[in-house]
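Input (structure):
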């Protein structure tokens, strides 16, 4: 009997892998490299929010530990990841954390100034980054000194914002835009900006009708409250870009107030206030709101996560308001969700989409959210059904089941079908891949959408990794496994050599898959490429005449 010339089983191969470990359910899992673990955690967090298997402190500390480790091996990657998380993935809090931590770390400080203006994309983030520094470095006390790199970066980031944005997010509670101006000393580009900064910090008590027209309009709008609502009030509301909070505070929660301000409300504010709009506006204005929500250009500019549309739809559907107005808005939201994925490129080939519908996926994204990880998984599964050329969609938990959804159906209707599937509570993802081996279902790629806490709730001996290895041996050695991580717990379901790790909650991940397959890269490569493109300095414009003269002399 041979002692050394033995053929290992798939189970022996995966269990002997040097990266083998256990997940939170004691199932077989595999460790990630530092950069991969960092981006999987960063792109799946709203920060300071608990998850099903971790409290907020533990998850946040995991991110901070990964930042420190990555800072030693590739310090600039942390800032590139922050740019990617903010501009491509649409996250706000965690990019600010990365920026602040980079400013506090000696290894990463030299990159901070260059990247700051690309990370701070909304005026309140000027305040948020200092507020984080206040907690992390000054224990909540007075901020006396900023790292020079961050101070200069913030001063330059002020150029990202106009009068409207700076006034909108100037908060009287806690730190304010005025405090940040005093700390960072931004250099105004023109007389208007100089007067605006002076007005914000209290140097100029009265707004100027020409230099600060929005501040002046806001003052006139508030003064109009003494005389009640009128055409003049509505005119000043429009010029002041009055938010619903300001308008309602000054003039009350009245139909005429809503009708005046809804044209200037941001897209997300509209989605959050659909029920109120239904309650207070007549059919004509509601139709205008519906048209704006469904407008593909408005959808594109809004950069909403696809699950935001599901949340808005569900909230309005469950409300007590009725009538045709409600139907107009529900139809508009469904159209908007379809429009949000319409421009994604089709990816050719046979694709198996596996959606985790287990109990742990019922955890909410945040304490203030009504959206669960299962909602996100179902939404991405429905989007995948549109994106891939030949998809088969399955749900799994205790058992696995094919979900019959059609690419021609709306994304919203397919989400509903996915969420109605009852497959129990455990996370036996291996059952699907085992059945694919039995049926000899050959595919080009598998998309696993999950929190990656898969295990065997029956005998406890089986694993997704074992059956995926068998699938490669017996059915298709060239199959690609995309591990779409929704929670960032830090482990994989198969060894890294067998997995293409992606992470996040947006439909844009499927565009990244297309780019990966075209350019033979991975998620780290996609992050690097995106950040480099966004932060690239404009090159010198070469005069063609000078070029011709140079050619003649040479």
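Output (sequence):
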């Amino acid at each position: 009997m041979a002692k050394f010339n033995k053929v290992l089983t798939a189970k022996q191969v995966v269990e002997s892998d040097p990266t083998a470990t256990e997940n939170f359910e004691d199932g077989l899992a595999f460790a990630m490299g530092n950069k991969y673990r960092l981006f999987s955690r960063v792109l799946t967090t709203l920060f300071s929010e608990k998850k099903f298997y971790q409290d907020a402190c533990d998850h946040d500390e995991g991110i901070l530990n990964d930042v420190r480790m990555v800072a030693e091996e590739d310090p600039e990657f942390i800032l590139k990841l922050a740019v990617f998380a903010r501009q491509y993935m649409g996250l706000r809090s965690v990019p600010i954390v990365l920026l602040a931590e980079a400013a506090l770390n000696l290894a990463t400080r030299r990159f901070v100034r260059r990247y700051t203006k690309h990370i701070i994309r909304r005026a309140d983030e000027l305040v948020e980054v200092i507020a984080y520094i206040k907690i992390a470095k000054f224990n909540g006390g007075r901020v006396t000194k900023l790292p020079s790199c961050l101070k200069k970066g913030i001063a330059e980031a002020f150029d990202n914002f106009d009068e409207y944005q700076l006034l909108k997010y100037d908060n009287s509670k806690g730190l304010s835009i005025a405090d940040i101006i005093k700390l960072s000393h931004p250099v105004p580009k023109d007389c208007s900006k100089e007067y605006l900064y002076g007005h914000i910090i209290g140097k100029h008590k009265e707004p100027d009708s020409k230099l600060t027209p929005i501040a002046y309009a806001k003052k006139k709008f508030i003064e109009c409250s003494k005389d009640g609502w009128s055409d003049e009030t509505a005119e000043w509301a429009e010029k002041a870009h009055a938010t619903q909070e300001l308008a309602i505070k000054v003039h009350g929660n009245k139909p005429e107030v809503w009708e005046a301000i809804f044209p200037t409300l941001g897209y997300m504010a509209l989605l959050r206030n659909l029920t109120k709009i239904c309650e207070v506006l007549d059919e004509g204005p509601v139709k205008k709101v519906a048209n704006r929500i469904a407008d593909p250009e408005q959808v594109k500019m809004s950069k909403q996560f696809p699950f935001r549309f599901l949340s808005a739809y569900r909230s309005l559907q469950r409300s007590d308001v009725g009538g045709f107005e409600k139907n107009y808005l529900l139809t508009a939201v469904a159209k908007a969700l379809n429009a949000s994925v319409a421009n994604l490129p089709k990816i050719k080939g046979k694709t198996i989409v596996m959606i985790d519908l287990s109990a742990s996926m019922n955890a909410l994204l945040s304490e203030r959210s009504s959206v669960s990880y299962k909602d996100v998984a179902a939404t991405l599964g429905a989007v995948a059904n549109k994106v891939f050329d030949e998809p088969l969609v399955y749900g799994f938990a205790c058992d696995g089941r094919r979900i019959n959804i059609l690419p021609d159906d709306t994304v919203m209707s397919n989400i509903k079908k996915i969420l109605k599937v009852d497959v129990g509570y455990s996370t036996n993802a291996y059952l699907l891949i085992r059945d694919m081996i039995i049926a000899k279902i050959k595919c080009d790629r598998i998309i696993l959408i999950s929190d990656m806490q898969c295990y065997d709730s029956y005998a406890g001996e089986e694993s997704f990794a074992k059956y995926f290895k068998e699938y490669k041996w017996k059915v298709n050695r060239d199959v690609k496994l995309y591990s779409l991580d929704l929670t960032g717990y830090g482990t994989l379901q198969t060894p890294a050599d067998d997995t293409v790790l992606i992470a996040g909650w947006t439909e844009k991940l499927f565009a990244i898959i297309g780019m990966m397959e075209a350019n033979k890269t991975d998620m780290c490569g996609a992050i690097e490429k995106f950040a480099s493109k966004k932060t690239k300095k404009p090159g010198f414009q070469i005069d063609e005449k000078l070029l011709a003269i140079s050619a003649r002399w040479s």
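Notes: Residues 323-341 form the longest helix (19 residues). Residues 538-554 have pLDDT under 50 and may be disordered.
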